[in-house]
Amino acid sequence: MLPALSPAQSFADAYKATRVIETLENYAVADQLDTSLAGGRAQSVMNVAHESDFWRTILANPDNTADIPVSLNQFTLSDWVPRVPGLFWSGNATRIRIRVADGRAIYDPFGKSQFVLGGIGTNLLAPDPGGQRVACLVRGRDVSGGIPMVISNRIWRRLSLEPGLVLTLTEVWWQLMTEEWQQRFDSVKDIPRAYLCVDDESQVQVVGKREAPGYQPYSLIEYVKDDVLQYDYVFRTIYPGDSRQEVADFFEMYRMRYGYNGRYLISPDPVSPLFDAVYSSPLQLRQARSGAQFHLELLKENIRETYFGGTRGADILSLLSRSYRDTANINMVATQLGFPTGTFASSVPADQIAQLVDWCVDTPGKMEELIDKLTGKQPELLLP
């Protein structure tokens, strides 16, 4: 039986569930590297001294900063990449990290989940069938905030590239991928799915070597607590000197201590898995099915049932009814979600919110879009 929660706790859990669904959907496309052929426009070169400057420029104007030449000066190479590059630098992600950080050595599942919602988390992806691989470049200490790069295995081998090498890149094109991050989520839709695409080895100069930056393998854990199916994030920061066995032992310890002997759903390292996971790669998550139904859809149905229905659903409605008392704002949100506002049965804000939430619950995918949208508009909804 689910323990009693406050409306604010239920909403915070619903937001976590929303981002779990977003994580699964974006993990499923993380290895898709087909570029969008925008046709190189003549533009001045963006010279980048730090990843924070790069991402602030990109996120401030995502539509007009795609398909541009970029030069990087003395960035450190990693073969791990952020799960959604750029998310780390978004305003909402930064607020979440600041709010939750308190210096603990090991965070409980709620704390771990908050950090991943704040942009922490990295994948190591196998080269695609065409021999293209994804890597990351950083000036700071952590890969989660870095800039992704696509480079061929041929160039990688010819230059003897490896994590920790310091590279200078000259006029490498920042190109959009054909497959975008999931556009239905406000929290990631303005983050372009783009990479620095190295076309020729002359664009890459190895200028030194320094300690490889830290990276954060992560996963989603599914477990049963109080007879209720639950989902949380787990990650660990890894620095040079940490052995793979130490990392594997940490994930197993966490699964047993905090995950109630649950199971990890996705693997951040399909090349050489750190732990057992139900889906070892984005490809497996995309293709796994039971009969006519894909596993990804089944997982999302389970998450929605756990976090959006029953008493939690009633708590969410109670919180939103207190927070949204303006018909114009409710109509704006409803229109953005695709709800036919002409069908509102009442002009009373509380009644409209109730009707909108009912529609979102009954329309697959809309409840998580509602939660994500409202949180972006009113971050204070996540405060206790």
TrEMBL record:
Domain of life: Bacteria
Full protein name: Uncharacterized protein
